[in-house]
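note to self: dont lose this again. the chain is below, predicted strucutre after it. 386 aa total, dont forget to put it in the shared folder this time
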Amino acid sequence: MIGLIVFGVLLLAGAWKLLRGMYFVRKARRLNAASDALEAETAATKARTAALEEQAEAEKAAAVVALGFVAEADLDTEHGQPVPPGQEAALAAVRGGDWEAGADWIAAAGQDWEERWSRVRDLAEAAAEDDAWLLAWKAARPGDPTAALVDADTAVLVAWNVRGSQSGARTTQEQFRLFHDLLLTARRTAQEAQELADPADPVPYMVEQPIAMGLGYPHEQYEELWAQITKRAPKLLCAHTSALQYWAGKWRGSHELALGFARTAADGAKPGELLSVLPLIAHFENEAWVKELRAEEYYKEPEVVAAVDAALADLAAAAPDDRRAVTLRHMLAWMLFWQDRDAEAVEQFRHIDGYIGAIPWSYAGRPKQRYLYARDWAVRVTMQSQ
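---
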């Protein structure tokens, strides 16, 4: 009898444990279901919030476009300003094998060295992709100084294309080796172009500037090259912007050297010669290179504000149709935005809008986003204040 009672007690205890276990299992399931539901609701709330934020941003962007500004999809990230019709025709002709059209196009620039340099670079970029027409030109006109010049700049571009645009840490040793060898070849080609050139032409010496930067010319050697350029064209803006890269801290100099070079050139220029862009570029390069600098603070420093003011006065004195002014306008738009001078920034954005293949936008991994962030902010603030 006692055994039966013990057995019954054990049976009841087992049943209790079973029922108790089933209770906790059901409770755990209810808790898990509630947790899953809560997570699903949270995810749905986040999605709705993100959708509302995206819709709000789209409406803001549409409002800016409605004021006459270019939509994101239509922004040109390759060019800093509209391409002249003559350039398109010349490039189409040489790509079709008509090298004479390219030769005539460069010749038409005459002694406008800025324009000559621009046209040489355009043809060199085409030849870096396919140089069959350039080889035909050189064969038809041995010793042609312009063909030699385009050939030299093509060699420079090929070398830099091999190196790529990544930082040194992301560039392979094989890339560096080929880059160095190709630059040595480019230097010989540039020297040949210099020997054939019109003694007044600074462009063959400009071709050597990126070679000097890549090969690491000592400062004294670069100064000798620079003297060859400036004795032929002392105020050539494109030559100065190239020299500024050499003197920058990321290449062969420092911020102090770059800024000193920029200030000296700008101070020695007449109003309207647009060399005031050089201090702006020097400051921009410094802010982009030094990670500790904060744009919202750095660009408001008195010396940067003074440089922007000087550049605005320089721009006002320039010829209205001076195509070189666009480089300055891009830099002004960026710096005026960071200085909270939004109405002045909008004036520059109206001039450059649609074409953003220039610094500072081109330095960003997503140039359109950088441009739109600055432009749309400045436009909205300006409209709200009116």
